[in-house]
Amino acid sequence: MTLLVMKFGGTSVADLERIRHAAAHVKREVAAGNRPAVVVSAMAGETNRLVALTREASPLHDAREYDTVVSSGEQVTTGLMAIVLQSMGIQARSWQGWQIPIVTDDAHGAARIKEVPGNELLRRMERGEVPVVAGFQGLGPDNRVTTLGRGGSDTSAVALAAGLGAERCDIYTDVDGVYTTDPRIVARARRLERISYEEMLEMASLGAKVLQTRSVELAMVKGVRLQVRSSFDDPESVPPAGSDAPAPGTLVCDEDEIVEKQIVSGITYAKDEARITLVEVADKPGVAAAVFGPLAEAGINVDMIVQSVSDDGRHTDITFTVAAADLDKTMSALEELRAQIGFKELRGTTDVVKVSVIGIGMRSHAGVAASMFKALAEKSINIQAISTSEIKISVLIDAAYTELAVRTLHSLYGLDDL
Amino acid sequence: MTLLVMKFGGTSVADLERIRHAAAHVKREVAAGNRPAVVVSAMAGETNRLVALTREASPLHDAREYDTVVSSGEQVTTGLMAIVLQSMGIQARSWQGWQIPIVTDDAHGAARIKEVPGNELLRRMERGEVPVVAGFQGLGPDNRVTTLGRGGSDTSAVALAAGLGAERCDIYTDVDGVYTTDPRIVARARRLERISYEEMLEMASLGAKVLQTRSVELAMVKGVRLQVRSSFDDPESVPPAGSDAPAPGTLVCDEDEIVEKQIVSGITYAKDEARITLVEVADKPGVAAAVFGPLAEAGINVDMIVQSVSDDGRHTDITFTVAAADLDKTMSALEELRAQIGFKELRGTTDVVKVSVIGIGMRSHAGVAASMFKALAEKSINIQAISTSEIKISVLIDAAYTELAVRTLHSLYGLDDL
Fold this sequence. Notes:
- The structure is a homodimer.
- Chain A has 2 domains: about 5-255, 3-Layer(aba) Sandwich (Carbamate kinase); about 260-418, VC0802-like.
- In chain A, about 35% of the residues lie in helices and about 25% in strands.
- Chain A has 13 helices and 20 strands.
- The first copy, chain A, is globular.
- The interface between A and B is large, with 36 and 36 residues.
C-alpha cells in the first residue's frame, strides 16, 4: 500500500476524454491497493479565459476578486474528475482549497501555502475514498479564496503530499520526464531516471519548464519525492506505485538516493534574457551603486554583471543582464540617470541566451568551467558574461549560437544517448 | 436611506457590457445614499455549458459534484461584478454561499435555504461596502456547496432580503414587469403596478415565467416586497429607491398594500400539459385509487381530474392532466396496469392548454366562473376539465384555441389597455 499524490496539469485534463484517461491512471493505483489523492489544474485554456474576463472587467482589478473568478477553473475540474472516477466505481470526492482548508498567506494572486492539514482526508482515504483536490488555490486569513500564481498547481500537489505524508508525488504532464537538455534542439537528449532537488531547482530556474521552481523548493524542504511522468502513457501498461518495476519518468529526490552522481546532469538555455551595456562609465568608487541601486528600487532583478576596465584606465564598461520583459523599463530608468551616472553610451539587446551546465558532481570535480570555456572557444563562441554557483555554470552568448553551444556541451559532458 | 437587494439574472449579466449596465443601476442607488446588496446569476449560457459538462462526464452523476461544477458559474459573475463596481469607485466585495454562509438543507441540486445570517454583511454595508452575492447556491450541512435548482437565484435574493431586513428586493430581468397576460399574444396586455403575493404565486405556477414560484412563496412568508423590473432601463433616468417617484415595473406585495383590488388581475396559459383519458373503466369503488396510487408512487404529479359516467351506468371515463414531460412515463405505467384497472382504451395527447383566470377579488365576487364559461362557450371553445382555488379558475381546452381564449377573457374582465 503506497500513499501517493497524483497531479494532473491543464493539458492532462483538457477535455472529458483526457479526464477519463487521467482517471484511468488513478484507477490503476486504486486497483493495486494504493491510496491516491488527486490534484487537478483547470482545463487547458480555462485559466486564460477567466484571466481575460477579469482584464475586460477592469485592467486594474482587485486581486481578491481576480482570485474569486480564476479559482473557478480548478473547481470545475475537481467536480468533473470526481464524477468520472465515480462512474468507474471509485469513491471520489472533490475538495476546494477552502474546504480542506489549504491555508495560505494573504498575498492574493500569488499566495504561499502555509499548511495543508491532512487528517480529514487521511481518514477518508483509509475508508477507500479518493480526494480530488483543486490545485492553484487556498484559503487566506480573510476567509477568502487565494490563488498561488501561475503554475501553482505543482506546488499544491507537493504541499498536499507533505500534509498527507505521502510516499511520492506523481506530476503527470505532457512530457515523459526531465531530460538532459531540450530534446527539440538536441536529438540525443536523454531522459534522466533520477535528479536531485538542487539540480532540478537550477534547471527549473534556468529555463527547463517541466516543473515550477516553487514546487521544487517546497519538495526539497519537505522531503517530498516527485515523479515527473507523462499523462499520455497507457494507464494499463505502466506499473503501479510500490511494484518492483520502476515508475516511468524522472524521480526528483534527495541526492542520497542517487547512487551514480554525474558531474553534469543537464544543460539548459534561457532566451528571455536581455543584455545592457553602459559604455565608458567613470571608473570611480560608488558607480556600481549609482547604477544598480535605482534598478533595485524599480523592482528590476539584475542577474549577471561584468565590469571591464577600458584602455585609458579612467573609464569602465558595465555589462549586465535583466529579464527580457524588463529591458525597456531598465533602459528608460538608466536614460533618466544619464547625467548622474555619466556614461557615454547605453546599449541594450535581447539577442542573447544564457546557457547553463548543471550537476551536483561539480562540487567535487574541478575543471568543469575550464573545459566548458575551452569547448565554446573552439567553436568560436564568444562568452559575454559568466555566473556560477556550487552546482552550475552559466554563460551569456550570442543567441545565434544557442543550438551549437548546447549540442557541444551536451557531447562534452557525455550526456548524449548513444 | 433604503436598504435593498438588487438581483440581476443571467441575461442581465450576459457579458461585460451587460454587467457594466447592471453596475450602473447599483451606482444610482449608492449615489442616492441607499444601501444595496447585489445578487447575481451565472452569465447567460454558462449554467447550460456547465450542466452539459457534468452530463458528458457521466449521465448518472453525483449531485454533490454537479453542485461543485455548476456553482462556479455564479462565482465568476460575483467576481466580475465586484471588479466592475470597484472600477466605478464603489467599494464592493464578492460573497459565495459558503462564505456568508447561506445555510441550506442537504438536498444537493435542489436545496432549500434555511437561513441567511445578515450580521456580517450589514456591518460592512454600514461602512459603505456593497456585497455581491452568488445566487443559486448555499452551504449544506456536509460543508459542501449546494445549488437550489434552476431559477434559484430569485429565491437567493428573497432569502438575502429577509436576512438583511431589506425594505425591498428588486428583481432585474429582461421584461419590464408583470403583465395582465402574455403581451406576445394579447397586444393590449397591461403592466400591473402592483400584484399580491397570492396572485403572483398562482401566475408563476400557472405559466407566467417572470418569477420562480419558490421565490414568491418565500417572499410571502417572510413579507419581502419584490419589485420586478427591467435591467434594460437607462440606469440614470429611473428614480432610486426611497424617492417620491414610483419605481418602474411591478411591485409584488401584501394585498393590504393594494388599494383598488381587481376582481381579475391576470390571465395565464400553460402549454406544457398533457391530457390522458382512460375510456370505459369499471365504475366501482377503488378504481380512482387503482389509477392514481401507482402514478403517485412513480413520482408523477396529477393536476386536473374529471370523471364522467358513461351511458350504461356501469362504466366511467377518467380524464386527468400531467406535465407534458411525464406523458410517456404515465402512459407506460398505465399500460402495465391495464389488466388490473380494466379499461377499454388509453388516450394521451399534449394538444391541450390550461388557461387560468386569477384575482384576489374573486373571493368577494361570485359569478366569475359562470361568466368565464359563458364567454368561452360563445366562442365555441369546449372545456375539457376545470380546477379552481379561492383566487383562480383554470380550464383545460384544445391548444388551437389558446390565443382566442386568452384574448376573450382578457377583454371580458376589463384588462385591456384602452
